[in-house]
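Figure 2 data, in text form.
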Amino acid sequence: MSANGRHSIFTSALKIQMNCHDCTLNRLCLPSCLAHSEVELLESIVKRNRPLHKAEHLFRAGDAMQQVYALRSGALKTYLLDQDGSEQITGFILPGELVGLDAFGNHCFPSYAVALETSLVCTIPLTDLEELAGSIPSLRKQLLKTLSRELHEEQQHYSHSRESAEQRLAIFLLNLSQRYSRRNLSATSFILSMSRGEIGNYLGLTTETISRLFSRFRQLGLLQIKGRELHLMQPTALNRLGKIEVQQQTM
């Protein structure tokens, strides 16, 4: 069978398997608050795209904002470009999370979103979503809740910018742990889809600092790491390390 034939079968299988009712992530996505009949209405407007490959953009800054996206599998990063054209990472998107909501109220996406690995996304046309949210109060409430959470997480991220490098990395790893746990995945063993440099960029630290901190955390017995595989050995101690760093800075 030709490569094109195999790809066609793979794509068709994805379309058959992917629907909001059966998706294991529906409790994290928009359907989480909807009745069965309401999920069917949402399902009728959701579109499935071909897989995004690593380093392929989902959208770019300036693209017309005609839809929002829900990540089904894989991982994305969002970023901005500064005046010098340097990349500033603004977030990492995990399965079950929405991306593109920062464009609400605008005609264009203000940021870029790119795949960190092969990823599948659900596309939700904005006009259809707005119309549906107007007739389903629970969907409108869920959208507002998601927007509010994103704003809060963004504020929390920037509030950590004055904290120590150790605490920033500790908080980042614990945040990933919590997000994987919400997906019924292991909170202590997971794959880091992002590179050391990307973590450093997001946290405002150098790649060398991130590598040094991983080595230090490993020596302290807080984690084990091999390639992209991360195992948190002492989450409580990692959390305590962050609190100690805060106390030291406030003394």
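Caption note: Residues 3-153 form a domain with the Jelly Rolls fold (CATH 2.60.120.10).
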